[in-house]
Structure formats: C-alpha cells, structure tokens
Design a protein that fits this description.
Layout lengths: L47 E4 L4 E7 L13 H14 L8 E10 L8 E12 L2 E9 L6 E11 L2 H5 L13
Antiparallel strand pairs: 1-2, 2-4, 3-6, 4-5, 5-6
Length: about 180
C-alpha cells in the first residue's frame, strides 16, 4: 500500500510507560457511551483494543450489517472510525492521552459484511506533543492487508481539553 503521509525522520525514540496495560490485556480508554469502544453505545464499533508487545496494539471488529456502505461491504467512514479508535488508544502505552490531528486511510480491498477485521498498530515515535502511528487491517492473513492507515495525534490534558463539553456528555440510561 502506498501513502502520501511521511512522518519526520527525527522522531524521538519511545519506551513503554511503566504503568501501561500489560500485553494481551484490554486497554480501557473511554466511557461506556463511546462510539468506538463503549459497551452501552446504542450503535457502535465496540472495539476491544489489546495491548501488544512494545509499542503495539491489536483489535478485532465484526463487520455487521449496519456498517454497510457499498452493497455487501463496509462503509469507508466506518473503517476510518475504527482505525481512529484503535490508533488513538495506542499512545496510552506511552502514558499519553491524545486527540486526532490527521488520519489518512488507504483502502486496498473491499471488506465484506460478515467478516472479522483484524487491526494492528505501531507507534512510530514522537516530536514534542505530536505522536505518529501506523496501522494495518486484514481479514486473517497479516501479509494480505485490506487497508492501512497513518496518523498524527496530539497529546492533550484530558480535563482541560474537554472542560467545555462535560455538561453535554451522554450517559447510559438505566431502568
């Protein structure tokens, strides 16, 4: 897959944060109503992002009927949202909460409804507050990617960044 996104050559080398989620365990990031990972969201991707070795994460997503774009295949925007969720979770391995600044997706092959999409990401490095990440998606054979992505995320102070929006948040309705 070709991309026009080129990270800087002088990225800071990174190490895993000592309190990072151990390999093989789910990385808890958001809240239960998050479209990407929330179990209580009425419609959502419900991604479980797992910490990998080093600065990697993996995830799987069932491609279900409501995700349809073209006939019988996933909508490109849904795939982009999935990449954003998986990649945006990765920097927690270095102790850095982030927001997306730039996301570029390369769509290589149609992804059929009813399939299971496998994601793998790798943090490439950091320049001050900028974190560069790459990801791939495949349908079972990592050597045959169906899509790839590169992204730039910005490290934030969560409380400060979302302060003006807390009164608008949605919480699960309980009987």
């Amino acid at each position: 897959m070709k991309t026009t996104f080129v990270p800087p050559a002088d990225l800071e080398p990174l190490t895993r944060h000592p309190k990072a989620t151990p390999p093989g365990e789910r990385i808890s990031l958001h809240h239960s109503m998050c479209f990407g990972c929330g179990a209580d969201a009425p419609v959502g991707l419900r991604l479980d992002v797992l910490a990998g070795e080093g600065l990697t994460v993996t995830a799987e997503m069932e491609v279900v009927d409501w995700m349809q774009g073209g006939p019988g295949v996933i909508h490109g925007g849904v795939l982009s949202a999935a990449f954003d969720e998986v990649m945006g979770t990765s920097p927690l391995l270095i102790g850095a909460p982030v927001v997306t600044a730039h996301l570029e997706v390369d769509y290589a092959k149609p992804i059929p409804l009813g399939s299971t999409l496998h994601f793998s990401t790798r943090i490439l490095g950091r320049q001050r507050r900028k974190v560069y990440i790459e990801a791939r998606a495949h349908l079972g054979d990592p050597e045959q990617p169906v899509a790839g992505a590169h992204a730039l995320f910005i490290v934030i102070d969560v409380k400060e960044h979302f302060a003006d929006y807390l009164d608008k948040r949605v919480t699960p309705s309980r009987p």
